[in-house]
Amino acid sequence: MSIFWLLLIFCSSGGLTDAKCKFPAIFNFGDSNSDTGGFWAAFPAQHGPFGMTYFKKPAGRASDGRVVVDFLAQALGLPFLSPYLNSIGSDFRHGANFATLASTVLLPNTSLFVTGISPFSLGIQLNQIKDLKAKVLEPKPYGNLPPPNIFSEALYTIDIGQNDFTSNLKAIGIEGVKQYLPQVSSQIAWTIKELYDMGGRTFMVFNLAPVGCFPAFLTELPHNSSDLDEYGCMISYNNAVVDYNIMLNETLHQVLNMLQDASMIYVDTHSVKLELFRHPKDHGLLYGTKACCGHGGGAYNFDPEVFCGNSKVINGINITATACEDPQNYVSWDGIHATESANKLITSAVLSDSYSHPPFPLSRLCDLHPIG
């Protein structure tokens, strides 16, 4: 039995009714990998089949169900994080989610409607939490706001940078992207220092995924057969991600030396995702580099002309990118984002402490709830 299945059984068996946890809240910063509805609160337009597995309707996630931060909150005994941008029904007593789909670390120099990059970059997300804290500290705070001490007690999660890496990749190539990646890691480090000055003390930073295994990029990015490894992933692009992840880890260590009594955890979800893409069947899945929701079939089932859930007339024919009937068998939901099944496996690995550097014993800091 694989380690992933052992971890999943551990995290899914037995309930803890009065579980306690060191962290009463989560503040999350990121992009579509951890967005729980921020983008679609700002630009309402999401439709099915997103959310088909768990929510049974679109729920602001770029998946068929829950994303990693949903499972992480569940494991810590917290409710799903309300998007900061959602003005209806939000409850910030246990944290907030500042992530939005298509967000970047670096400030975008173009419009959402031109390139698809979100205006809510990491710097904007940082300003949003500062605004939230200012409202909490007002003499008579209103709404479902947390207590002032929440900012020093919360767990801060940061999962962003993928769009900085991939948005210009086709146009300028790997070497072009590498020119500004040091700015990306430095900006993440600077943001953490700002959050530390606000009172934050515990930070989990997720590294970048192996984009060379993504169905979308296997379809869109230039490469030849010699650049594919034995698992069908692009070697050159994945090597570039590894180089960035090493740089990010080194940058975080440098920052940690400047922050007294802070915990900085580098979370290697890259290794988890790479394992799932390479050996999906070892972890209860069937398809690694093939998208569940897409069009075109074949090895990748991804069509850059028509994204998941959308329709378009191409050569006089109305084409629709539809979802498979069994997303629980796929690693990739829509060619770019993970399915709920993959996200659950990723979270189980994170909770195991095997992929955290330095080791971060969440199971000793919290009575973990099941993530079924």
Can you describe this structure?
The longest helix is centred in the middle third of the chain and has 22 residues, at 235-256. With 372 residues, the chain is α/β, with parallel strands linked by helices. The strands form three sheets. The chain has a six-stranded mixed beta sheet. It has helices at 3-12, 38-42, 68-75, 112-115, 122-136, 150-153, 162-166, 169-178, 181-197, 215-220, 235-256, 269-278, 340-351, 362-365, and strands at 26-30, 95-97, 155-159, 202-206, 263-267, 287-291, 311-314, 317-320, 330-332, 356-357. Residues 1-18 have low confidence and may be disordered. The chain has one domain (3-283): Rossmann fold (3-Layer(aba) Sandwich), CATH 3.40.50. The radius of gyration is 20 Å and the shape is globular.
Q: What is the CA-based Rg, rounded?
A: 20 Å
How many helices? The count is: 14
Number of domains: 1
How is the CATH topology named? Rossmann fold
Overall geometry comes to globular
Q: Which ranges are low-confidence, i.e. pLDDT below 50, for 5 or more consecutive residues?
A: 1-18
Helix and strand string, N-terminal first? HEHHEHHHEHHHEHHEHEEEEHEH
Head-to-tail CA distance between termini: 19 Å
What level of helicity do the residues show? 25-40%
Oligomer: single chain
Largest sheet: 6 strands, mixed
Determine the mean pLDDT. Answer: 93
Per CATH, the class reads Alpha Beta
Q: Look at the helices and sheets and give the structural class.
A: alpha/beta
Strand order of the largest sheet: 2-1-3-4-5-10
Strand content: 5-15%
Question: At CATH's second level, what is the architecture?
Answer: 3-Layer(aba) Sandwich
- The overall strand count is 10
